[in-house]
Amino acid sequence: MLKVSSIFYSIQGEGFHAGTAAVFVRLYGCNLTCDFCDDELHKTVMREYSFDTLLHEVSQYGSKTVIITGGEPTLYDLNPFIRFMQSHGYYVAIETNGYNFQNVKEADWITYSPKDWETVHTQGFDELKCIVDMQSDIDLLLRIETDKPFFIQPKNAMHTPNMENVRFCVELVKRYPQKFRLSLQMHKFIGVD
After folding, report:
1. The three-state (H, E, C) secondary structure of the chain, written as one string
2. What is the pLDDT of residues 49-71, one digit of tens each?
């Protein structure tokens, strides 16, 4: 059984797979309380799903890409569920703060979004995404070493972009083109969930 806050069909608005249609499975619970979290459901709404019931829900949509997000997915050992979905032809991506990579190691793609930039993992993920605003300590970002795609994403409001932070991130990408890529939360610009 998985503790699920919501299931919805949209486009991936962030990172390497931006623009891809996907079914999002938002899990309940998180080990952090970030002030920029853009979802409250993971703290307040929870329904338990069996693997079969969740597969049935996901299969109502056209995409074979499933993105498991939260909250924090790695609070749970998701490897059995990931293998189950893969056995039914699904590509499974995870969005995590890096709490426990072992719990999602079977995923096809792992997006790591660390909140503490002083202790960043160096392996166990496919892309790195850091949430940045004009007060961020850029020196800490510059010290992070990775050979994976390294996205910086402007800290935005709950449903709308923060254009000052967007411009700040654009300038960082232009200043450090070998280091950073820009992730924009495209869904907030076009007004979809």
Report:
1. CEEEEEEEEEECCCCCCCCCEEEEEEECCCCCCCCCCCCCHHHHCCEEECHHHHHHHHCCCCCCEEEEECCCHHHCCCHHHHHHHHHCCCEEEEEECCCCHHHHCCCCEEEECCCCCCCCCCCCCCEEEEEECCCCCHHHHHHCCCCCCEEEEECCCCCCCCHHHHHHHHHHHHHCCCCCEECCCHHHHHCCC
2. 999 999 999 999 999 999 999 88
Which CATH number describes the domain made up of 2-190? 3.20.20.70
Average pLDDT over residues 27-39: 66
Q: In terms of pLDDT, which residue wins out, 142 or 44? A: 142
